Amino acid sequence: MELGTIISLVIYFVVMLGIGLYAYRKSTGDVSGYMLGGRNLPPSVAALSAGASDMSGWILMGLPGAMFVTGFSSTWIAIGLVIGAWLNYFLVAPRLRVYTELASDAITIPDYFANRFEDKGNALRIVSALVIIVFFTLYTSSGVVAGGKLFESSFGMSYELGLYVTTGVVVLYTLFGGFLAVSLTDFVQGCIMFIALILVPLVTYSLLDTPLSSTLNSMNPDMLTWVGAGGAIGIISAMSWGLGYFGQPHIIVRFMSVRSVKDMPTARRIGMTWMIVAALGAVGTGLFGAAYAQEKGIVVEDPETIFLILSQLLFHPLIAGFLLAAILAAIMSTISSQLLVSSSSLTEDFYKIFIHREATDKELVLVGRLSVVVVALFAIYLAYDRDSSILSLVSNAWAGFGAAFGPLVLLSLFWQRMNFYGALAGMVSGAATVLIWIYAPITINGQVLSSIIYEIVPGFIVSLSAIVVVSLATKEPSEPIQDLFKKVQTEL
Q1: Which of 227, 197, 214, 225 is nearest to 291 (CA)?
Q2: What is the pTM of this model?
Q3: Structural domains in the chain, sorted by start
């Protein structure tokens, strides 16, 4: 590897660890500070942190890889995500910020569900925490896989060593700095990703010798069509990624941390600008990268590494190091957020409730840090299968959260009649539907269910229906819960 590339990466690692040290000295004295940053994030930090933790390695590797293989038909994923992100900012963000503070200052999503629905038996808390831990372990492993592929492809390391290096740096700054470290590093990482997703596709496009459409057509005429092999159902499946936003704990927890609900319009404008540019950059990287590789006769064994290949071929070593840092930024920002949310659930929703109710803040912060390490080790174990597809791992976890939590979060914020029984039924049925759709040995005309339509679609529909039917079939929420709902509406 070139010296300039190494220098850029060393600077990046030092900055990330420095931010972790700064955050450690600023905000880890109590559990609220460690898990939620004291609800005092500026809108710019919250917005870029939400974007960076949302996109992960798949925006620089998974989505460009899909575009490289299938062409324009994969663009519907990006379109669905942009629409979903905007709706998430508009519908969920302001209400969740107010509701979680008024609902006994809930600092985790399971905590919010328990307080919102008077979960005296902790059933909602337990089920939601289990959903978070199971799906986030899968989700985190996708980032670890991306890190392993990055170090193997770019640095000549073994895939396994890449897993440990990637996870080790993230664990260090998350372990000590908590939510503030994660949010501040996400802000820096989001800026790096933003620049990289403009630079790489623009430079690649400028170096093409023939029109893009001609080159793609010579590769595969289907790459130019907006309707892929799945037809209309395929488009619905791709765009349905946007439904997942309402239920992603590592994203919506950013809304809970903003310093004031009045900052939400600013956060939305910043976040959506970042999101649109990032999505266009990822789409362009895949398409232009496919055309460039075809023109120059470059063999791309793993399409998910096209961003890496372009970075190394087209740029000076110092810039290449910056671009590789962008991939690390995408990977690490999401891993750190997922580790922290999983850690907060293990700490607040298991340890504090079932093991030591009188635990001090110092003890809870310690348990939270140990939980970060435990979840990270499980993610590394799952990532040892180097043939894992980043996009496939992300899609499974994304669907799980979107179906289990999406309808639940939306209706809890807008429907006063929703009750505990409906919430529990929706969460369980949504998660179960996704798991059945992915793993059940059921085929239709020789096709497994998940290849027919993305599992988030049936999962979301089943969950939404279960919430409405069960809530209407059981007793109304108590008067204090209805009063809390009315109070939230007045605060908005």
Answers
A1: 214
A2: 0.81
A3: 3-387 (1.20.1730.10)
